[in-house]
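Re: the multi-chain job from yesterday

Posting the exact lines I submitted so nobody has to dig through the queue logs.
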Amino acid sequence: MRVEGEETNVGSATPEPAPGPGRRREDRARAAIHPPAISVSTDPSAPLSYDPELERIEIELLLEAIFRHYGFDFRSYAYASIRRRLWRRIVAEGLTTISGLQDRILHGPALMERLLLDLSINVTAMFRDPSFYRAFRQKVVPLLRTYPFIRIWHAGCSTGEEVYSMAILLEEEGLYERARIYATDINEVVVHRARAGIFPLERMQEYTENYIRAAGTRSFSEYYTAKYDGALFSPALQRNVVFSQHNLVTDRSFAEFNVILCRNVLIYFDRALQARVHGLFYDSLVHFGILALGSKETLRLSGYESRYEELSTSDRIYRKVR
Amino acid sequence: MYEIAVIGTSWGGLSALSTVLAGLPATFALPIVVVQHRSPDAVGMLAELLQSHTRLIVTEVDDKHPVVPGHVHIAPPNYHLLVERGYFSLTTDAPVRYSRPSIDVTFASVADEYGRHAIGIVLTGANDDGALGLRRITDRGGYAIIQEPASAESAIMPTAALRLVPRARVAPLAQIAGELVTIAPPGPPARDRVGARLA
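And the result, structure tokens for all chains:
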């Protein structure tokens, strides 16, 4: 199956090189003669003629329709980011309104599949935020050594980059044999891709740098083999990983965990839904269980702040204490 | 009546931002949002460095943090920064033209959420991010200020913005804080956004 949204996953994070001054002057001269056409945007968003209040009504109706017809509940997703992703799909389909998208989605499940990928793939990287993995080694690994068996829930694992990162870390710390990682995502297709364990070869340099800065103890290239333009990660890294579909919005907890990783997933939810999911996590953690959030996510607004202590303030690693 | 000011900059931004913020009184009433290009793993030093130049409170944005009048909110590295009604949302969506945070993404979000109540400011920088976003702010009725290219450490970003927003107010760096104070007089915080919308 051709997977839409693929392009969103390969962006490089290196700064744009400054254009040469000569080229620039030329552009300026040309612009003086031919004023640039303005209405284009590299970042699809509503045309200016769109009334923001009408846009909001249409988006709410669309999300309601998707929920009632397909059962996917995006109604409590953060408005600003879902709006951005919807417009990207509207432009890609050659459409002009949200209502137009709604018509096509309700009468064509194939488009729903594509939109589902747009809305559910969270772009990530192996060893994203290397300092998190360093902190995890220093602060969490010693605690995990005291357990005979470690159950980890990676909630919202997207295409799996961070699952393999954690598997590698546990392997290097000698904890992998007694660990089981339950990696879940709302989208079956995404889970399938995560299970395949193949990532773009052109990102291996970036991932290698991340790995080194995450205090990796081996050579990163030991973990994958190049295959058809992709880097296939060692199947051995999957031997204690269970990938499955799970919806944080509608599904319940399915076990008790020593560690829950949910990094840069809750940012796509509104505050009410975030609070609900924090309830789910709290109920799913053992006493002294670990909760790891994204580096800009906080428990402060969740209502659960007093139930946890901070193990690493800057890397947002918490421990359930009451 | 303006309700938010958003500043975009890249190369030379730290020094330029320090100058602008140092020129604002502690009673400056608008929330200020700063998008400065930096490497994905930059540690949170920008907020600390800027804090030493201003009496306004400077913080790096956490997801869903409220938009606070008189505070300087810094876009964190490796995320895009969006505004909702009264608070921020972050995304890890792909970089836009190699930048995350992207100035265009934040400016467009502010334009769509705040309309004519937004002020956009483009300072020094070595690429043309921010130009489209600033254009969207003015197209939605907001106000635009561009650092005079000759006074910029790198003129590329302000020049690109000027091409798309030729009617923007152009000011040398030293006068930008004064411009802001003129159009958004210091005083008690602007009315709450939802209240303003209903009024």
